[in-house]
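Need tokens for this chain, all 192 residues.
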Amino acid sequence: MSRLGPIPDPSTMDEVTKTEFDSLVRFYKGVPESGYWGGPYDPWFRSPELCHQMRTFGLWFWEKTSIDRGIVELAISVAAYYWQSNVEWTHADRAVEYGIPQSVLDDVQIGNRPVSDRNDVLVTYDLSMTLLEGKSLSNDLYNKVIELFGERGLTEMSSLLGFYTMVAFQLRSFDVEPGSDGFHGFSRPEET
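Here are the structure tokens for all 192 residues:
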């Protein structure tokens, strides 16, 4: 259950918050019946200017990246696994929709390097895990990434992983989980 309450009454909002509220209402085509935007939108909304920037940046990954959509979704799914983020794991379904084999996502979900004959899948996994684990890229991995995605692609992929790490931290901070019909396979360890 989220630590956040439902969307505040619009009449109580300051001008900046109300502007972002109106933008989200247009995006969602109304106010959600549940009283929650869902995913990272609820934490973001607590800081309306940040919300606007995060939505703009996230949308850029949907519309402007030079990387194949399936590969983008795979990288997000690797981040979801790494950070044990149930909400972000919804991107695994999108990865499959965009051509990544289900078996690859099954491997990622249990923490295994995927078995695949697709070099782009393996390089994406290796790059994602290397960066998420806080390691530097070896010359070999760097060269593989550059050969497949170019410098632009590496810039975009590393930014994508940073963005979805930030999303995972926000979801964890406010204990945001998917609805009852969503994925709940990752445990959420408590602070010790």
